[in-house]
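== Sequence, structure tokens ==
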Amino acid sequence: MTHARLDPAEILNSLPHWRLAEDVRPALTRTLRFADFNAAFGFMTRVAMAADKMDHHPEWSNVYDRVEVLLTTHDAGGVTERDVALARFIDQTAAEMGVRA
């Protein structure tokens, strides 16, 4: 299934915690900080379960209390509505779990 690419700059108006990734691909990125490793890992677990149901998986990494997330739709070569939906889920989950940044 092909997904229509969106203009990442326009999307950022509705996703204030996200920025354009410094990447060769059009992508969105966000850095999140939690109280500790346990909170960060718990956040990643919740997002992983939702991402799997959405069949759309983030590129991410975790170092102690910090989670770095990059969203892009590989088969579309850029940002699509799938990335926006996952970004919104990430924002909601982060707020519920007490993200510090």
Q: What stands out?
A: The first strand starts at residue 19 and ends at 20. The mean pLDDT is 93.
